[in-house]
Every structure is written in structure tokens, then in C-alpha cells.
Amino acid sequence: MSQEEIKIGDRVRLIHSDNKFMLLKPGDLGTVWDITTFSLMDEQQIRQIWIRWDNNSRLALLEEIDTFEIVPPEL
After folding, report:
1. What pLDDT sits at residue 2?
2. Distance from the CA of 12 to the CA of which of 39, 52, 58, 71 falls in 20 to 30 A?
């Protein structure tokens, strides 16, 4: 499943982020609760994937900047 197909309610696993201020580490899990888009100065569109992390933090990942994977639902 690609990040293009991500939707509210999906579970995600953090792989990598350059955000040195967040308290998350690779392997942390969370649930998508919102998806927004904003424009940079050069008109580039960036999607923010807002996550409720299992450690009770709320922090967005930025597509094309942060790396994460969608976790398949448990059967």
C-alpha cells in the first residue's frame, strides 16, 4: 500500500524523521486522525498526516520528508 492511499483510521509505523524535537523513535505506532495539505513558498504542496501516537502524543508526519509505513490490519 502506498502513502497515496493512506486514510483516516489507518495504523502507521514511524521509520524515520529528521524532527529532533519529537519524542518518537523508529518503530513507534499510531493512528491517522486527519490529513491536511499546505503550500510551501515555491507552491509545492505537502501533505501532513496527523497521527495519534500510542505514546499519547499528537504529531503530524510530512509526506516526502518523513518516512513511515502503513501497518496492515490484524486478522
Report:
1. 47
2. 39
